[in-house]
């Protein structure tokens, strides 16, 4: 029988996993939330979940407005 260490990729070290907690985000995942990893420079600009969510909500709002403007222009119904 193989040891668990033999199953790990060489770039991983067992010492990197000392603080893992099984099921840590289970409740959030069950509620439909997602856990993502941010690149370090992004995490520096948006250090909290609230900051990330506010930025993404703003981006969605801008995208929806742009989509409405674009779709009006295609049909020739935009007021001038």
Topology readout:
Layout (H helix, E strand, L loop, with lengths): L25 H5 L9 H6 L3 H27 L5
Which class do the helix and strand fractions yield?
A: mainly alpha
Span of the ends, CA to CA: 75 Å
* Main beta sheet: none
Helix content: 40-55%
Poorly predicted ranges (pLDDT <50, ≥5 residues)?
none
Strand residue percentage: under 5%
**SS elements, strand count:** 0
Helix count equals 3
Instruction: Sum up the overall morphology in one term.
Output: elongated
- Helix and strand pattern: HHH
The pLDDT mean sits at 81
Computed over alpha carbons, the radius of gyration is 22 Å
Characterization of this structure:
With 80 residues, this protein is mostly helical. Helices cover 48% and strands 0% of the residues. The mean pLDDT is 81.
Summary, kept brief:
The chain is mostly helical. 48% of the residues lie in helices and 0% in strands. The protein is elongated.
Considering the chains and any ligands shown, give keywords for the structure:
80 residues, mainly alpha, 48% helix, elongated
